[in-house]
Design a protein that fits this description.
This protein is mostly helical. Helix content is 67%, strand content 0%. The radius of gyration is 22 Å and the shape is globular.
Length: 244
């Protein structure tokens, strides 16, 4: 097996973007044509998959001395609501109003959902370290995140966040994990913790994800406001589509 460290940094970044489906369609097509013609490149991609996901998970787990206990499940609260309607006088009028309202809501929601699905791409994450360090718990959760096991990543990162509530890296990746799980309100809270920090390297991207979260919440004013504060190309494209 080839050593991962022998792969040039630029190529490693390209492979990461390919594996995380973050390539534009035309670039992806060209890269896949290149893979078919280059067996060495194909093997390098397989090595990256194995080392970043499989071996990374196994090594981290073997070195962890203890595992965090599962967080207790949130209590399930059910409420029964009973509505009394005077059908004798209002049934027909109410049906018309509801039908029109549903038509408007579903059409508005479907547009926002389409835009969200088009522009939301989870950050491909940080490289996990294989050396002795104090970051095993964070790295372990990062491997889960890259495997799209967002529930596990959230559980582990939230535990670490209890001791470091202002950590921008934790808040940023937790926000993305929540957003990927359609937990927009939780995502908003995490991203707001990031953008409050002027020196955060994640600030611009956090504004993009904040805009996407508000888009899912149907708050177009807040969505535009936050997208305008991001200098990413994706935020500019989404802003232009929201104007149409």
């Amino acid at each position: 097996m080839k050593d991962l460290h022998n792969i040039p940094e630029a190529l490693l970044d390209t492979i990461d973007r390919y594996l995380q489906e973050r390539m534009p369609a035309d670039e992806k097509l060209q890269f896949e044509e290149r893979i078919e013609k280059d067996p060495i490149l194909k093997a390098q991609i397989e090595d990256v998959k194995l080392l970043r996901i499989g071996i990374g998970k196994a090594v981290l787990k073997s070195r962890l001395k203890s595992f965090h206990e599962d967080l207790p499940d949130a209590p399930i609260i059910s409420k029964e609501k009973v509505f009394k309607i005077n059908y004798k006088y209002h049934a027909i009028a109410a049906s018309i109003v509801i039908a029109l309202g549903c038509f408007w809501f579903l059409n508005r929601d479907s547009k926002n959902e389409r835009l969200f699905a088009k522009h939301f791409k989870p950050d491909f994450g940080l490289a996990t370290t294989m050396s002795e360090s104090n970051n095993y718990d964070f790295d372990d959760a990062m491997v889960d995140y890259k495997q799209k096991n967002y529930d596990l990543a959230i559980k582990k990162w939230e535990t670490i966040l209890n001791a470091k509530p202002k950590n921008d890296t934790l808040n940023y990746f937790l926000g993305i994990s929540y957003l990927a799980k359609n937990a927009e309100k939780e995502a908003v809270s995490k991203f707001q913790n990031v953008v409050k920090q002027d020196q955060s390297a994640f600030k611009s991207d956090a504004y993009l994800y904040l805009g996407l979260a508000y888009l899912k919440l149907d708050n177009l004013e807040k969505a535009r406001e936050n997208l305008a504060l991001s200098d990413t190309e994706n935020s500019r494209l989404l802003l232009s589509e929201l104007k149409n």
